[in-house]
Each structure stands twice: as C-alpha cells, then as structure tokens.
Amino acid sequence: MKDERAKKMHLFSSLVPRPSSFVFRRAIFFCALSAVFFQLASAFAEAQWKEERGDHFIVYYMNDAAKPKDILWKAEGYYNRIADDLGYPRYSNFWQWNNRAKIYVHPNKEAFQKSTGQPAWSHGMASYLNKSIHTIEGTPNFLDAVLPHEITHLIFRDFVGLEGQIPLWLDEGVAQWEEDAKRQMALQNMPMLVGQAKIFTLQKLNATDIRRETDQDKVAVFYLEAISIVDYLIHQYGSSRFTQFCRNLRDGKKFEESLRDAFGASVGSIDNLETLWIKYVMAKNTGDLS
Ligand SMILES: [Zn+2]
Questions:
Q1: What is the pTM of this model?
Q2: What would the pLDDT profile of 72-125 be if each residue is shown by its tens digit?
Q3: What is the location of CATH 3.40.30.160 in the chain?
Q4: 146 within 8 A of 31, measured Cβ to Cβ
Q5: CATH superfamily to which 31-160 belongs
Q6: CA 158 / ligand 1 centre spacing (Å)
Q7: How far is the CA of 34 from the centre of ligand 1 (A)?
Q8: Separation of 290 CA from ligand 1 center, angstroms?
Q9: 175 C-alpha vs ligand 1 centroid, how far in Å?
Q10: Taking Cα atoms as reference points, which of 94, 181, 102 lies closest to residue 146?
C-alpha cells in the first residue's frame, strides 16, 4: 500500500531563477498526490476538528491560527477561476453539499504524518478519491501556491478521470500553471532556456518520470517547460480543446492521435507541436537571452 502510494506521489519544487544564469534556488514545497484511498489513522478519525463550511469546501482545523476563513475564501475563488480556466463553466453544481471537497489543516507535522502516512518531506497532499487536501498549519506558500495547485489536481481529475495514461508533465503542468508565480516564472524563463538549448524534446518529456531525476537543473526545466506547453495549448486553442485532448488520452488514444483530434492536423504530431510551441515561446521573447 505504501509503495503503491509512493509511486503515485507527485513531487515538485518551487523554483526561483537567478538573473543571467541558469541556476535555480529550490525554495521547495512538495505535492503528494494520491489516487489511493488512504486509510486514516485512528488519531485522525477521533480528532476533534472544528469546521468552516463554504459552497464547495469544508475546512477542518484545530486552531484559529490556521485562519480557516482565509483558506475558505481563497479556495472558493480558486474553484471558480480554475473551473473557468479548464473549460467547465456549465458544470455548476459539482462539489456542492455532500460532495464538497475537504481541506484538513493539521496542527503540526506529527499529526499530519500520523493521519496520512506521508513521508517527512511532505507538507501537503491531495487525494482524488477522498476529494480531500491535507496540509500542516503554517505551511509557507499554502494560500498562494499549494492550495491552487492541489485544487487544480482535484478538479482536473474530476473531469478527466483517474484512468488513462496522462503524462506526468501534463498533470503537473496544469496544476502549476494555476500558480500565478510559477506561470510568470515559466513565461519569463522559457525563451532563455530555448535559446540555450536547455529544454527537453517533447518525446523526452513524455517519457520522463521526473521523480527519478536527481539533477536539479533538469527538474527545473521539466516543470517550467510543462507549464509553458500547457500555457501554449490553452491560449492558442482554448480550454475546451485542451480538455478534449486530455480526455482523449484518458480514453486510451495515442498521444499524437489525441493531438490531431483535439487541435487539428497542424498540431498532429509531436514534432509539429514542438515546433509551434517553440515559435510561440520565442515570439514572447523580450530579446534578452543572456
Ligand atoms: Zn502536483
């Protein structure tokens, strides 16, 4: 069970570029995303949670210092924005009443680990089947980065489904695209990375399980590139065609067949997509490749 869950965990990093060199400082937080229905420890089940209820979320917390009203307000705002961004505006009744998503703010790391079985490095996780997000009170960047990231994972999988072979870069690219700071970082840095030939080919991106990579520069490129390609596809073709592409993958269509079906013949191969995406990136280039 633990091994299975570990396989499904997504690890990502918050990356801050330094001017005029490709060195990234890892500010770091972690995303542990699980499709497995994890068994809650008894301490979790018996805990005396306080609740803050909204239209689509219930925040469970222990201490007022967790700022549950702030979390709820932000979560509801992200819900609307992310659903719109991903092209689900008509699906207005999901996640209401008994289907509300649950956000658990554990009072400390020990309680979080005891309840969720997460490893020491983890500060947050999302569980698809429980439709829940777990974090630790006081986690840095929770409201602005971790929360939209995890909500995006849940909404995306709610619509696209749990089955199918969606490449890791696509799942993480969508979630990170919804983090404003990371999106800006990707847009600013991709022209430089393309110019310096630091990028993965799309073939390589599709085949890479970045969780096994130890070179931090490569990890950085992987995530920035994933965000940039998602940005290209959504801006250029619209969110509903992007979602169709993801659903094609879910339904078992091959990558290129999924591209052709959703975006048309001009994007119908991996090489074509790569060429078009690079053109898009360089068109946004400010000219500073140092
Ligand atoms: Zn993630």
A1: 0.80
A2: 999 999 998 998 888 776 555 677 777 899 999 999 999 999 888 887 777 788
A3: 31-160
A4: yes
A5: Collagenase ColT, N-terminal domain (3.40.30.160)
A6: 15
A7: 10
A8: 31
A9: 6
A10: 181
